[in-house]
Design goal:
The protein has a five-stranded antiparallel beta sheet, covered by helices on one side. Strands 6-7 form a two-stranded antiparallel sheet. The chain has a two-stranded antiparallel sheet with strand order 8-9. About 4% of the residues have low confidence. The chain has 15 helices and eleven strands. With 396 residues, the protein is an alpha+beta fold. Bound molecules: zinc ion.
Length: 396
């Protein structure tokens, strides 16, 4: 406002008995209180509505509300919270009209690896803006970290080169370290999924640039697992608790491929929960199951030209279908993020073997029968078929 305009307003206010000025003072005298409990509620439900995996304590601790939004750690507090343990909405401790501060950090546990993203926003930022800013910064943080990776080790089976910390021992042997696409290969004996689960959690919690394919391994084990899986995982004598995605594969965080995406996945970039991904894919491509069944029938016909009877069995294992979608998408993510790496689709061609799957299924208490061909078909035929449907060429 120019000085002249201010002056004119003041004169007019005086002229009409000061009512304008009084109204303006009244308006200014009651700045709005902002409760952190409300801000946290809105934040958590907004990310839930977006379909992200979300965890939230439901109470502030040490003056701070914490949230776990996919691979992001969110904190909400009052300005100056570091000096107080008080509830951030306690009017005796804080000026409740002071705008609370939101901080978003990735990775979730940056102690050893350092923060790849620190995003600070005022607590009164509209939630739609918060979500788009977090998505944008998270995509940038992952891309920046991925571009700096040094491939100083190789997968013991396929020989593809990765950073040493990104390859995990999936068996009892610490010397046999694998990439995510070799875990279920027939050449791998003596699997140890109960240990692998913790190693995957540790890696993905601490490294925002971890290979996308570990989500697919997580999805497959979590989808296949039986009711005893929790007891077996928690009985391993470790102090750490397994993450909730092992008992609900919908909550697995999936990194989408950077760059062009099919329209159905466009709004989900850079990542989302497996539950959200699966429903987006199913809605956009409702005929995937029919295509899978047709493909299986065609393959069987080719293999058994001399057999007379038609095979009427349905080989689709519904329980593993979300894992097949997860493999299809994360193979594309790895292919784009690791331009010098092997083609993950090539590895997946025979990367699922009955004996290896049966060994894993047995250890995680699965009730699925790996020897009935359904599991192997669902994965080895389903994954390339879904990849192709989504436009991620499985044979580049
Ligand atoms: Zn490998």
């Amino acid at each position: 406002m120019t000085r002249n305009r201010k002056k004119k307003l003041a004169i007019r206010a005086e002229a009409d008995g000061g009512s304008h000025a009084r109204a303006a003072r009244l308006h200014a005298a009651a700045p709005k209180e902002i409760l952190t409990a409300d801000v946290q509620d809105r934040l958590i439900s907004a990310f839930k509505t977006e379909g992200w995996p979300v965890e939230n304590d439901g109470f502030p601790e040490g003056g701070t509300w914490t949230g776990w939004l996919g691979p992001v750690w969110s904190m909400l507090s009052r300005p100056g919270w570091r000096h107080s343990e008080a509830d951030p909405d306690d009017p005796d401790q804080y000026d409740l009209t002071a705008v609370p501060e939101l901080t978003f950090i990735t990775p979730k546990i940056p102690i050893n690896t350092g923060e790849a993203m620190v995003l600070e926003l005022p607590g009164n930022t509209p939630v739609a803006d918060i979500i788009s800013k977090v998505r944008e910064e998270l995509a940038g943080a992952r891309a920046a970290k991925v571009s700096k990776l040094v491939n100083n080790a190789e997968c013991s089976l396929c020989g593809d080169r990765y950073p040493a910390t990104h390859l995990l021992p999936t068996t009892e042997s610490d010397r046999l370290v694998l990439c995510p696409f070799c875990v279920f290969d027939g050449d791998i004996l003596g699997s140890h999924p109960l240990r692998l689960a913790y190693l995957i959690d540790e890696l993905t919690d601490e490294d925002v640039a971890a290979p996308a394919g570990w989500a697919a391994v997580t999805a497959l084990l979590a989808c296949a697992a039986g009711p005893e899986f929790r007891e077996r995982l928690e009985g391993g004598g470790t102090l750490r608790l397994p993450l909730p995605h092992w008992f609900n594969p919908d909550l697995v965080w999936v990194w989408l491929p950077p760059g062009d995406l099919p329209p159905a996945l466009h709004s989900l970039s850079p990542g989302t929960s497996l539950g959200t991904l699966v429903s987006a894919v199913e809605t956009a491509y409702p005929d995937l199951r029919d295509r899978f069944r047709a493909q299986v029938a065609a393959n069987l016909e080719e293999d058994e030209e001399d057999s007379n009877g038609e095979d009427e069995r349905d080989y689709l294992v519904e329980q593993l279908w979300p894992a097949a979608i997860c493999y299809a998408v994360t193979a594309a993510t790895q292919f784009r993020e690791r331009p010098g790496g092997h083609s993950p689709w090539h590895l997946l061609g025979d990367g699922f073997e009955e004996g290896n799957l049966a060994d894993h299924f047995y250890q995680i208490g699965s009730t699925l029968d790996a020897d009935s061909f359904g599991s192997v078909f669902t994965l080895s035929i389903g994954v390339p078929l879904i990849s192709e449907a989504l436009g991620f060429d499985p044979n580049p």
